[in-house]
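Chapter summary example.
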Amino acid sequence: MLKTVVVFLVGALIGGLVVWKLPALGQATSKNEKTDTPKVDLSALNNDVARLKSIVPSNSHIMEDVSFHFSNLWFAGQKKNWPLAMFYYNESRNHIRWLLQKNPTTKTPEGEVVNLQGIFDGIDASTMPMLKKSIEDKNIGEFTSAYKLMLESCYACHKSAGRPYLRPMIPTAPPQAIINYSADANWPS
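The structure predicted for these 189 residues follows.
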């Protein structure tokens, strides 16, 4: 019984403190909000948004990054440098996702809205996992097939977006000359 009385008294004490202090805390918050919060300058905010929009890269710039990484992926895979291939696979995928975060739709030259996010979701659930698995399995035959299939998926997206003239191909030369694609490279160490 003593335990019940102690629990009751502690509960009453805590409840009393909450009832007593809660209105004071609410007033302090309201008072602080009224006096300490600066007013938002909508004109400056609009100017900042306009400036940020003006410096965001275009879709073609982002896709050029995808092209760079995807071409490097080809050469890393052909040299069986699987960690480097996985790096370029991830870079390619992340840059496509960046484009979609920036703009999940595009318009064809005729003005039709194309759901790029929906197209990528399909590719990301089918072709891309096959390519990733070929890299994880270190299987050059599967890699070559999956890479070609991925290029076909890319082209299907380009056609859907009204840009059939953007026809990808197996790269014939590395896009840069500073990365050693060889899995056996021992310099620099």
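To summarize the output: Residues 61-160 form a domain with the Four Helix Bundle (Hemerythrin (Met), subunit A) fold (CATH 1.20.120.10).
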